[in-house]
Amino acid sequence: MNFNIVQFHSGQLKDVKSLIDQEFGKYYSDSKKFMNSNFFGFCLIVDSRIVGFASYLTESDKVCKLDLIVLEPEFRGKGLGKKLFEYRLRSITKRTSPRKIYLNHWVKSDSPIPLVAIKFGFEKKTSISGFWREESLTLKYECKECRKKPCVCTCDIYELLLSND
Question: What is the domain range of residue 48?
């Protein structure tokens, strides 16, 4: 399958927000700070269409957060999510030298663990029930997983420690 991964730009915002909201629930994309200087996003393009998106945030010189990764359902299971994950990690190490990269994994019935992250050495540090509760109330997003307002889903926090000496 031919695909390209490109740096996100503002002209792609509408399509990216639609993709995110389809997967995570209406208005969830409003929680993302797409135009902040510490936000970096990447679009996976197939046949001139955005079918995947991944992002990260630099929280400091030494800490980065993998923000989210999303693929349209028909493109899952083809290795594209892994390619997008790898591309994002390479981008981080090109831009900065973090000591820690972490991610908040939304525990879902179809994705109980972040398999690709674990393959890259990420380890689970903690689990927080109702992690998105306040955010879901503030932004009024409709969680597609628990289907509750507010969201009561669990977040597992994984991290990767890097040696940059």
Answer: 4-161
Cβ atoms of residues 19 and 70 within 8 Å: yes
154 phi and psi angles, rounded to 5 deg: -95, 145
* Structural element, H or E, at residue 20: helix 13-24
C-alpha span between 70 and 85 (Å, rounded): 10
Counting DSSP H helices and E strands in the chain, the numbers are 4, 7
Q: How many domains does the chain have?
A: 1
Query: What type of residue sits at position 90?
Result: R
Angstrom distance (rounded) from CA 96 to CA 58:
9
The pTM for the full model equals 0.93
d(CA 13, CA 35): 10
> Which tokens in the block code for residue 76?
């899952």
For 126, other C-beta atoms within 10 Å of its C-beta total 9
Mean pLDDT of all residues in 12-41? 94
CATH code for the domain in which residue 50 is found: 3.40.630.30
Write the pLDDT tens digit of every residue in 72-99: 999 999 999 999 999 999 999 999 999 9
